Amino acid sequence: MSFFRIKKNVYPLFAIVASIAIIVYALVMAKRASCSYFLIGAYFWIMIFGCFRSCLRMLPIYIIVGGLFSALFYLATGVASSALTMANRFGGIFLAVAIGMSVESVTMTRNLSQLRCPRSVTLGMLIATSFTTVLRTEINRVRESMKTRGAGSILNPKIFYRAFLIPFVTRLVKISDTLALSVETRGFALGKVEYTVYKKENIAFSDILFLVGIIVGGTLAVVL
Amino acid sequence: MKAVELKQVSFSYDGEKKVLDNVDFFAEYGEITLISGASGQGKSTLSSIICGIIPNVNEGVLNGSVLVDGEEMQGKRLGTICRKVGIVLQNADEQIVHKIVEDEIAFGCENLAFAPDDISSKINEVCKLMNIDPKWKTRSLSGGQKQRLITASTLAMGQKIVILDEPLANLDKEGSELLMSILRSLCEKGYCIIISEHRLDMIMPYADKVWHMEKGKIKQIEDAFSYLSGQSKQIDDVCPRFISKDYAFRLENVGFSVKDRKILDDVTVAIPKSGRVVLLGENGCGKTTLLRLISRLYKPTKGRITQNIDERFGQKNKGSRKWFKSVGIVYQNPDYQLFMPTVRAEIEFGAQSKEYAQCVMERFSLAHLADRHPHSLSEGQKRRVSIAAVLASRPQVLILDEPTVGQDYEGLKSLVDILNSEHIDSGNTMITVTHDVRCAKALCDIAVVIKDGKVASIGGKDKVDEFFSLSKD
Question: CA of B173 to nearest chain A CA: how many angstroms apart?
Answer without folding.
Answer: 25
